[in-house]
Amino acid sequence: MSRCYSHLTLADRRRLHHWVERKVPINEMARQLGRHRSTIYREIKRNTFRDRELPDYDGYYSTVADDIRKERRRRLRKLVRHPQLRELVIEQLEALWSPEQIAGRLLADGVCTVRVCTETIYRFIYCKEDYALKLYQHLPEGRRKRRARGSRKPRDGAFPAACRISQRPDFIGDRSQFGHWEGDLLIFQRDLGTANVTSLIERKSRYTVMIKNQSRHSRPIMDKIIEAFSSLPAFARQSFTFDRGTEFAGFRALEDGIGARSWFCDPSAPWQKGAVENTNKRIRRFMPGETDLTAVSQRNLIQLARHLNDQPRKCLDYRTPAEVFMAHLQEGR
């Protein structure tokens, strides 16, 4: 018998229904299902159909037993039995608190005698009875359907250890050499379409390049970068540092197309490419998340990048990125 407990399924109940009709002993039922005899005894006792008006129809029926089990679990849910707690959870979800924050704060404050875990809140959000409230819209990801645990594929295969930022040479990190870039993807509201913008910043000069994309597929994004940088001399496009987003999984195309190496931040460490993150904040002043990219052309992005590149920077001794970038190009030639 397995030590890992799992609930009886509808298929198990169908087998039980046939055995009950044949009056098979409970010990034999338990043996064939690989369960403890108490599990079978409780199942038959709790989920047997009984009707005072029609006693001839009393008995254990698989589908009816499954419906009885579902109804009992629905009634026993904490956020059904405690309406005040339910309203408090809804209020905090609407305030954009995560389920983990809600559960942790309720426990820390001690204002509620009923303990609610994160999983309970997630089940409440996605259960059929309360799905019409659309509470999933208040979650950070806003998914209509809950993703199974462990369904997210690890990205270590897409980004090999040899390309980790820890392997990147020090002269890139300390900005002592020209021609090393950082890249990121600016995403906008989903209901406005799949268009997005690639932002690229040269680390030493802080020179900005912006490219409009029609999708988040990696290869078209890489092709746009190759097209934009192919006119530069090789010393001005030596490497790119990205995060581990799937949109950069086709990074090998950069090496084949323009001979540029690619480096990748550690998981959940966007601060390791701080130059582009800081520039993204500047871009968001002009292009917030609700911007409709269908009304923004590549020419508009070039004009915005020119505006950013013509602003003096304290880190450049108040020279502009454009001035420093052009000076390095001329020195290299």
UniProtKB/TrEMBL annotation:
GO terms of molecular function: nucleic acid binding; transposase activity
Domain of life: Bacteria
Ranges of residues in domain Integrase catalytic: 165-329
GO BP term, example: DNA recombination
One cellular-component annotation, GO: cytosol
Residue stretches in coiled coil: none
Annotated PROSITE patterns: INTEGRASE (PS50994)
Keyword Transport assigned: no
Any Pfam family hit: HTH_38
NCBIfam families linked: transpos_IS30
The protein's name in its UniProt record: IS30 family transposase
Organism: Rhizobium acidisoli
Organism lineage string: Bacteria, Pseudomonadati, Pseudomonadota, Alphaproteobacteria, Hyphomicrobiales
